[in-house]
Write a structure and sequence with these properties.
It is a single chain. By secondary structure, this protein is mainly beta. It has one domain. Helices cover about 10% and strands about 35% of the residues. The chain contains two helices and seven strands. Strands 2, 3, 4, 5 and 7 form a five-stranded antiparallel beta sheet that branches. The relative contact order is 0.28.
């Protein structure tokens, strides 16, 4: 979940929260910056993105939040290679602080759905 999405119209949630979000399949190019800042193939592990302003026809997906992590990285003005820091948290707040010179970029969330089984 992009940080600006949460700040704009997101609702805080925590681990074990039941949520219902409109999830869409990610565009492969929109996630490539994650591999730039993290260098670990994380983009390939993301199978859905939550987007308040995207495809309004995307189905609502209900699930339980299993884990949450914040992602901070440097921008100059593009994402800086290798600058990503992932920090596990128990709650996703609407407003998140930067980490020194790394800006808050968003959340990496694991969601258990009826279809996922995990």
């Amino acid at each position: 979940m992009d940080g600006w999405q949460m700040e704009c119209c997101g609702t805080p949630f925590g681990e074990r929260s039941d949520v219902a979000w409109r999830l869409r399949n990610p565009n492969p190019t929109e996630l490539s910056w994650l591999d730039t800042v993290l260098h670990d193939g994380v983009a390939a592990t993301i199978d859905a993105v939550e987007d308040h302003h995207g495809d309004g026809s995307a189905p609502r997906t209900a699930g339980t939040v299993v884990s949450i992590a914040t992602l901070h990285c440097r921008f100059a003005p593009e994402p800086v290679a290798g600058s990503g820091v992932v920090t596990p948290v128990i709650a996703a707040e609407k407003w998140n602080n930067d980490l020194d010179d790394r800006r808050f970029a968003g959340f990496l969330i694991r969601l258990r759905t009826a279809d996922s089984g995990s």
